[in-house]
From TrEMBL:
One of its GO terms (molecular function) is methylenetetrahydrofolate reductase [NAD(P)H] activity. Pathway: One-carbon metabolism; tetrahydrofolate interconversion. Belongs to the methylenetetrahydrofolate reductase family. Keywords: FAD, Flavoprotein, Oxidoreductase. It comes from the Bacteria. Gene3D superfamilies: 3.20.20.220. This is Methylenetetrahydrofolate reductase. InterPro entries: FAD-linked_oxidoreductase-like, Mehydrof_redctse-like. CDD domains: MTHFR.
Length: 318
């Protein structure tokens, strides 16, 4: 199975990222959001892990909900920072046992104040090593089955093992902690060599950042699809927070427009229009789909897809 599957509502594959609720009271609201997102037949909905203090238990709970209650593929983010080899192996087993077959393998960030030393990193030093470990644990836990060989009559059989899809992160403007300019491309090549089948990018604010990065990655030998990660940003405070977390450059036009707009409705319109323009531009440049950071709010990402002409107005679900 390929992670990127054309959904039926739109010919452009779309996908969404949500994060696990931080309190028990927020589950109902998140599940309502997931229902609304599922209504546009996304290729997958991904659930963050560990980010912002969300633990693996809550993440798996949300993933299991998506698996049981929708027809959408749940994609589990996993981070390995600070974990021993045995802990990471046990975590992967737990997710596989729950029926999860798609992963986003991440190194993760060291806790604030911790260095990049061996103790802070744990046994696995990079996302590429986690890709290999997921693949290995999956192989150990899934027996081979025998299937007929397509197009070959008779009793000939081929041995197959159910596989997992493993996505990885990519950084169009480099990683904030890169030690040399092309390190993020080298890291992506290593993740591909380890078995990753899809890359999802960090958010970016200019289509050229993504398109130039894809061109550089392709000429370096990256062949896997690189899905652009886009976040509609509808307030100056959200923009500041995102810049702080990602280390991206402040997008001048968006920052000024959000700052001078006096109403919340007006700011929402600006953020949606900006993100929709970005979606159109990257698709025109050959992007294989659109991955939207939903921030657990269906309204803004669905409005972005409508504004970009990716889902029809009749698919309005809010
Ligand atoms: P890697 O590719 O292994 O490393 C990334 C970069 O870090 C390398 O390119 C290199 O420049 C640098 N680097 C690697 N090792 C070292 C070292 N020893 N010293 C200095 N620099 C080094 N985080 C979460 O906690 N939970 C999530 O759910 C989550 N989801 C994400 C989803 C997406 C799409 C993206 C883009 C990021 C997400 N993150 C999440 C953030 C991610 O964990 C951080 O960006 C992390 O710093 C890098 O992870 P990686 O998997 O790309 O690591």
């Amino acid at each position: 199975m390929s992670i990127i599957q054309p959904p039926s509502v739109t010919t452009v594959p779309v996908s969404f990222e949500v994060y696990p609720p931080r309190s028990d009271a927020s589950y109902a609201a998140l599940y309502e959001t997931i229902d609304r997102l599922a209504a546009v037949d996304p290729a997958f909905i991904s659930v963050t892990y560990g980010a912002g203090g969300s633990g693996g238990g809550r993440s798996l709970e949300v993933l299991t909900h998506i698996l049981r209650e929708t027809r959408v593929e749940p994609l589990a983010h996993l981070t390995c920072i600070g974990s021993s080899y045995a802990e990471a192996t046990a975590l992967i087993r737990e997710f596989l046992d729950a029926g999860i077959r798609s992963f986003l393998a991440l190194r993760g960030d060291p806790p604030v104040g911790a260095g990049e030393d061996a103790a802070a990193l744990g046994d696995l030093e990079s996302a590429a090593q986690l890709v290999q470990l997921i693949d290995r644990v999956q192989a150990e836990t899934s027996p081979y089955t025998e299937e007929p060989i397509p197009g070959v009559p008779g009793a000939a059989r081929v041995e197959r093992r159910p596989s997992v899809d493993i996505a990885v992160a990519a950084f169009p403007n480099g990683h904030p902690r890169s030690r040399y300019p092309a390190e993020h491309i080298d890291a992506l090549l290593a993740k591909q060599a380890a078995g990753a089948t899809l890359a999802i990018t960090q958010l970016f604010f200019h289509a050229d950042d993504y398109l130039a990065f894809v061109a550089r990655a392709r000429s370096a030998g990256v062949e896997i699809p690189i899905l652009p990660g886009i976040m509609p940003i509808t307030s100056p405070s959200r923009l500041r927070r995102v810049i702080e977390l990602t280390g991206e450059q402040v997008p001048g036009t968006l920052a000024v427009d959000l700052d001078v707009e006096p109403t919340a409705d007006g700011r929402r319109e600006i953020g949606v229009r900006y993100a929709a323009d970005l979606c159109r531009a990257v698709l025109a440049g050959g992007a294989p789909g659109i991955h939207l950071y939903a921030f657990n709010n269906h309204d803004t990402v669905l409005a972005t897809l409508r504004e970009a002409g990716i889902i029809p107005p009749t698919e309005e679900t809010s």
